Amino acid sequence: MTSRGEASSSSTAAGSADPDPAPGGMAALDELVEExxxxxxxxDPALLFRATLVCKRWRRLISDPSFxxxxxxxxxxPPMLGLLYLSLVGEGSNCxxxxxxxxxxxxRQCDWEAVDSRHGRVLQKRLNELVVWNPIxxxxxxxxxxxxxxSEECNMAVLCAGAVDSGCDHHCCHxxxxxxxxxxTDSEMFSCVYSSEDGMWSEPTVSQHPxxxxxxxxxxxxxxxxxxxxxxxxxILKYNLGTREISVIHLPPGSYDTYMHGHPVLVAMEEDSxxxxxxxxxFTLYLWLMEAVHNGAAxxxxxxxxxxxTLLPADALFLVRVITFVDGVRLLFVMTLKGLFSIDLKSRQxxxxxxEELDVxxxxxxxxxxxxx
Length: 373
Fold this sequence. Notes:
Blueprint: H1 4-16, H2 23-38, H3 46-51, H4 56-63, H5 65-75, E1 80-87, E2 94-98, E3 113-118, E4 121-126, E5 129-133, E6 140-142, E7 154-160, E8 178-185, E9 189-195, E10 200-201, E11 205-207, E12 220-222, E13 225-229, E14 235-240, E15 246-250, E16 265-269, E17 274-281, E18 284-294, E19 297-307, E20 321-326, E21 331-336, E22 339-344, E23 349-354, E24 360-367
Antiparallel strand pairs: 1-2, 1-24, 3-4, 4-5, 5-6, 7-8, 8-9, 9-10, 9-11, 12-13, 13-14, 14-15, 16-17, 17-18, 18-19, 20-21, 21-22, 22-23
Helix pairs in contact: 2-4
């Protein structure tokens, strides 16, 4: 027979133990933890990696593919983890710069020129060789020789194979099939497409000469079309991924002499899938949006984008050149007498990335989600 004191002592000891929550309670707790983890900023991937060390339950939640899907859907646009820049001087002739301090160190690729970067991949060239590279996984795909090479009068782009029919949201396709589009001009214009699924280039397609030549700068993807910069300041080239047809589009009248860096800055506007062009008037930047195209003549609308005098240091307002603009993260890259700056148009924050000695003239942002598991 147990005394009242013994019973009380036994009850107290049992109550001091940490009982397992009911299954329903654990499910509710998991949902709360997941909602908390979803809000970790994607441009600092180290935070999620550290969260996996908290306990086994958190590691299981973060490693679950359903969390990966929700995380990408929640943040929508992949973060910029780094950029590949092309410089005229120094060891930085073509290297990877980590814009996120928690991005893993990237093997230097200074003997290759970064031509394009999209959907978690980078397209590089060295003489007549082409390679597709994933800086995070360090996977490399060597492409077979092109059917025909057009010296420097060419450009090319890498993209997810699902972009042809818009069948992919591009949140997690860096390990899937990809395409490389090559366009060249000399006495005529031709294009061909490499498919990683087929492992070969398509037959070349000859098109009407645009009476202009391509400039080797990163292209933009809008809908199912790629847009390339031409050496003149009056036109750009459109490549339709579905039909593989090439057409020429005229830029806004009166804006030809306002480009601060000598060539148009093309922008893919994510919200409404429209093509944009950044132009400047002294230190005021404008965004032109293409409304419609008829027989190569486009209708454009203009809006003010930014006033560089309020965003850049006073001693940097010399020899200003807009390099590129990334709409998904609203980042503007500007080369000045004091170096390369990134300007966040959402927060209005400016950050110096590289010194002026490098004289950067081309930037290919690398954007990708980096999630444990």
